[in-house]
Specification:
The protein has helices at 4-7, 52-61, 86-89, 95-98, 136-141; strands at residues 42-47, 73-79. The chain is an alpha+beta fold. It has a two-stranded antiparallel ribbon. The longest helix has 10 residues, at 52-61. The protein is extended and about 75 Å long.
Amino acid sequence: MTSVLDQLEFEAFADLFALPQEQHVPPPGAAAEPDLSLAHVWIVAAEIKVEERVAKLADFRGSFTTDQGTRVDALEVYCRQCRRPYEDVADSDCEAQIDNRHLIGGDQSQRAKRKVPELPSNAKIVPGGVIQRRGISAYVAGVSRPAR
């Protein structure tokens, strides 16, 4: 005769890395990961003349539809990923796929340090009083008390 403990299955911790039951495992010969393309993703900044009601709708929703045959003036064509104009980088690979340091202002270790402002020649530094920022005296003085 089996005991009740033998009949119950207990798992102390959930296996977070287990595949869900409905997800299938690819066959072993399948390609695991496609090659990343270094191609640009081109987008066009456009200017479209619209009526007032369409402008109001576009402002509210952030998008709108146009009639078929509407002519669109292209203001600028640039890559969505590297944010560079078409004429500058059309013949080269997208640098954002390789390295996107140009989007954050270049290499951070080689950037110029911030300049410390110089005091005017006739400036005089006057020491101020000590401000109590903690404790009951700070609360009574209104330093840490919320404004009413």
